[in-house]
Amino acid sequence: MSDLDIKKRIGVLTSGGDAPGMNAALRAIVRHAVHLGAEVFFIKEGYIGLVQGGDHICPAAWEDVSDMLQRGGTKIGAARSKEFKEESGQLKAALNLLEHGIDRLIVIGGDGSLTGAQVLFSNWPTLVEKLTNDNRISKEIAGKHPHLSIIGLIGSIDNDVYGSDLTIGVDTALRRILDAVDAINSTASSHQRTFVVEVMGNKCGYLALMSALMTGADWVLIPENPPRDSAGGTPWEDRMCEDIKTGRKAGRRAAIVIMAEGATNADGQKITSSYIKDTLEKKLDEDVRVTILGHVQRGGSPSAYDRNMSTILGYNAAEKILSGVIEKPMVIGLRGNIVTYTEITEALDVTREISEALKNKEYDRALNARGEHMKNIYNITHTLFKSKPNTPPKKNRFNFAVLHCGTQAPGMNTAVRVLVRLALDQGHRIFGIRDGFNGLITNDPNSRSSSKIIEMDWMKVNGWASVGGAELGTNLQVPKTPEDFQKIAQNLAKFNINGLVMIGGWNGYQTAFDLFTRQGLFKEFRIPIVCVPATISNRLPGTEVSIGADTALNNIVEAVDKIKQSAVGLKRCFVTEVGGRYCGYLALMSGLATGAERVYLPEYPFSLKTIQEDLDFLVSEFREGRKVASIIKNENSHASYNTIFLTTLLDQESKGFFDARPSILGHLQEGGSPSPFDRILATRLASAALDFLLKYAGSDGPFCAFLGINGRRITENNLNAFPAMVDTKFERPLNPWWLKFQDIVIKLACKPKDS
Ligand code: ADP
């Protein structure tokens, strides 16, 4: 065999603590490498396997990564190796790699694992030289592999390593925490009990802070910002107990303190959950329960976000490492939905800087180094904790209103809660409008009582963080006639509304635009109006994601997992119809997360020819032994060929190699409590909506905008730009960022014929 015939080889290992999503990354690496004509070797049990070699290093075939996307943990084992830290261990590791002809390595793990990768890279020339001098490898082999290319994927549920907005496993861990704390909340409310919940995070308070925000907890303890005594000398323990007591008096039935396992006091001494429990029991004179969530947080099926992020990173890592020599080891990450590369040394330096800051008790430095996002969330969370707002200022007090429009989206309530509390805390009044624009149209402006427009107070939104649906009510009705607009103007005038927030979907945007264009007719519309994107279909312009889309995606993914499982022992193709109107986001991203063979999107309407090609593909796959196939179909991917027609056709024309079954998910997709991602998104957008109102209220408008999240930042677009940013016929944004992933779905699900 000539050198040209030898395929490029990649070694891949998972190391340190396991994290949900690692399997999705492995699948993407192996399958994309097969497409690129390379070979992947699994190195089992992390660096232990690399040092021991033998059966620990084995070729990974396409089929070895089947049925893996939905599985937590890591299929190839993740372990810790002391021996690898020594030169003797690294010599064995290098020898094993060279014996397999591998000089490309992908490491999936935390900061320890990435440190190990960097060390191996730096020592590689010396190790190769020693192995050559000891005659353990030939000069020829040494000459062929002078350099070790390394790419790292960060697998860490703590989000404690720099280089990616979220590290693999974080979103799933947040889901586990959220489910547990939501459950604890319900029992704690029943008995008016206080709970201390300890979550993971030794040097990083990300999980604790985000879960406190998402669940409406009363107190949080994180390593980056230890509790401090007040300026007047009140010990923090007394402040904590006082806050919980006032919360109770204000009507909070449950009290929850969330702490990171690495929480310390300002002197750097560890605070234990039992210390918090004893303190609370003594000062509140009641039983306090402690729940330490432990490894529950690490386990279970990965969330849609973790599956998709890991897939995208694994896919790109395989491509990058096969594209040429990687001069310096890189960490691949996703920042604002864009794949980025950071040198491992830089990622480790920033990570270490935070550890150093914590060790030196420089807590502000530590929190700053975590970035703006975490700092903002910290500040918002501390406002939400309060049991009543600050005293209203006497001047510059505005009246704001909030309403929904469109179909309900999980996270709408979270957004209203944040908006109401932040507005009240700054001394403003805020009104909730029931039933969307219908409420503004039907509320009688001449009546003294008002059934549709209600003033919101602090405790009215208590508990809304975790409730799905829309407590204020929402519907699709929008103003059409001049009388409708007149009524809206009268109601805005009656309550002297200085700014309006619409949290909803397409119709809401359209209506906000209609009000905006009538500002010449009605002076009441000359106020800041801001739209916050909330729709499960994710079909709004100016934002990469909308509130509710992640929850819907997870609902679909869980359903598809179950549907696929039901086919055990049968040869079956499922056609699952998902929502999205004329936007293929849910179909495509659920196809990516569940490993669908095909996704049918409204952006690329299919034809009879497509069906014939896909049928031929399925017949040949099932003939060769495939057991299950899955097609995810958007509800409007074809004007006439609906899901039942398509399924019947596949079933009848399958030549007996498989049968086909339809599944129309319907309203299941909209339900349930909002996912962590949606709760965090809702919080950020609601806070930005208030900032927008405060920037323009009382000034000489008109200022009307729709908000979004783009890259890592919240952005605002003038409502004027709305028509130019959308496809009005299909009511969806132009050029969505996610359409490019269709290629990945197909590639990772379909083995190349010549492999
Ligand atoms: P994580 O990757 O989750 O942070 P660890 O810190 O336990 O987990 O590191 C995993 C493994 O990485 C260790 O068991 C060891 O084999 C390797 N490793 C960590 N630090 C070094 C180092 N300085 N030199 C060589 N290998 C290291």
Name given to the CATH architecture of the largest domain = 3-Layer(aba) Sandwich
Portion in helices: 40-55%
Low-confidence stretches: none
Strand segment tally: 25
> Which secondary-structure class do the elements indicate?
alpha/beta
N-C termini distance:
18 Å
Ions, cofactors and other ligands present here are: adenosine-5'-diphosphate
Percentage of residues in DSSP E strands: 15-25%
Total discrete domains: 4
Compute the number of helices.
23
CATH topology of the largest domain: Rossmann fold
Mean pLDDT rating: 94
Coarse shape = globular
Largest sheet: 8 strands, mixed
Write down the Rg: 28 Å
CATH class of the largest domain: Alpha Beta
Plain-language structure description:
The two termini are 18 Å apart. The strands form 5 sheets. Strands 1, 2, 3, 4, 5, 6, 11 and 12 form an 8-stranded mixed β-sheet that branches. This protein has a 7-stranded mixed β-sheet with strand order 15-14-13-16-17-22-23, sandwiched between helices. Strands 8-9-7-10 form a 4-stranded parallel β-sheet, sandwiched between helices. The protein is built from 23 helices and 25 strands. It has 4 domains: 2-167 and 302-336, Rossmann fold (3-Layer(aba) Sandwich), CATH 3.40.50; 170-297, Rossmann fold; 399-546 and 674-725, Rossmann fold (3-Layer(aba) Sandwich), CATH 3.40.50.450; 549-672, Phosphofructokinase domain (Rossmann fold). The chain is 41% helix and 17% strand. α6 packs across α7, α11 (344-359) runs antiparallel to α12 and α18 crosses α19 (585-594). It binds adenosine-5'-diphosphate (ADP). Adenosine-5'-diphosphate binds at residues 15-17, 47, 80-81, 84-85, 109-113, 115-116, 119.
